[in-house]
Amino acid sequence: MTKNPTYTVAALYHFADFPRYAGFKAPLEAICEEAGLKGTLLLASEGINGTVAGPRHGIDRLITFLREQPEFAALEYKLSYADDEPFLRMKVRLKKEIVTMGVPGTDPRKIVGTYVEPEGWNDLIADPDTVVIDTRNDYEVAIGTFERAVNPDTASFREFPGWARAHRDELQGRKVAMFCTGGIRCEKATAFVRDLGIEEVYHLKGGILKYLEEVPADESLWQGDCFVFDERVAVGQGLEPGDYTLCRACRHPLTPDETRSDAYVEGVSCPHCIGRLTDDDRARFAERQRQIELAKKRGQRHLGG
């Protein structure tokens, strides 16, 4: 990464009582357009969540606007940087939840785990009496996680409550430490586990991204890279971009070795999805890739890319 990267990336979320969320969509879109930002922001009655990128002054304009709203006055955010544009367009979406767990009544504003700052996380997870749980999805865990972390092997966050219920007896009476990418999934995960009756529950404040930013490499207990939901694909210590490529067919992160596999065809298939694709799928993806390459030749960016 250059010393003066072109794009500033802001990951943000805030839980709040926000019944006016639908009417907030248009003014939020207008601010993002005015600020020259791209990315995705989700709005729901429980708050806001998302990641956007653009010039630093544009990010500052958005954060100022959001903090001017009484519901988001205490909003926190995390910054990282990119040389290449992380997103292709700006989307503001209305949702039932800002992070989808699918369990009505799970409210981090009422009950949540104990926040642990990055500098205190190592001591907590090094304790053999602590159960360390990675609340992210299986494809995220596959490219990096913390030492000793339990992988629930979930394909989506909706599966986490079922895993937690099934393992409740194993967690009872133990210290439980949870982590996720930026912190939002842990807000709900710790609230849910607390609702199950598990008392001593902790989570990493600011998530993996904050840990990788603040904890020196020689002290880090993180192993591998951290998947991020933008064109960087993954970041490592110090939030430096990793060496992963995204399969455009199934959205799975790929190592350099996987992109050299016979199963990998750019934009069409990879070792993780080739066995699931139909002939129609391959034809559709191949046409999309052809359009992407034509757009590149014209000096444009195709939204499918």
TrEMBL record:
Residues 126-220 form the Rhodanese domain. Belongs to the TrhO family. It comes from Oricola cellulosilytica. Coiled coil: none annotated. Keywords: Oxidoreductase, Transferase, tRNA processing. It is an enzyme of class 1 (oxidoreductase). This is tRNA uridine(34) hydroxylase. One of its GO terms (biological process) is tRNA modification.
